[in-house]
Fold this sequence. Notes:
This protein is mainly alpha-helical. The chain has ten helices and no strands.
Amino acid sequence: MSEATRERILEATEALLRRHGPDKVAVVDVARSLGMSHANVYRFFDSKGALRNAIVERWLARVTAPLDAIVAAEGPAGERLHQWCMTLMETKRRKVLDDPEMFRAYQGLIGDARDVATHHLDHLIQMVRKLISDGIATGEFRVADLEAATRLVLDATIRFHHPHLVAETGGADLTPRAEVVIRAILGALAGGVV
Length: 194
């Protein structure tokens, strides 16, 4: 019951954020929309900041779930890294374009959720590091500096998955450009450039 209530609170908060934006949504508004007291909301989230962080975490978890599955899958590391990059790009693109109200709310919340954002970035780094390590272990990649190779992947693809940069494209499909960049990255990893 408590997990179901927590989810109801998060869903109601997201709905209010879409409608009103983060500056106009208070805990009391969330509670009122659910027909409960604001004290009940505080049983699940000890502050407005905690509730907002949970919204950002939820948004980012929807991004990382399919990526975690790719990392855990079997198969050549290069194919999985390619799929991982393309999935990250398309997931972020869909989040920005398919739910613009929530994306605007997310932009308003992320500034106060630096720890959540840092954790998300660390998780992305760990996933890329694992994929490259898998490629090194099988001889698919010849990498001298694992950390530099990991940074290369994220730095070279950021144009295609950073939410603010995705929003700047106005919805343009950058898949062909991303494919070129990812092929170059995979060539560098296989060729021992890094």
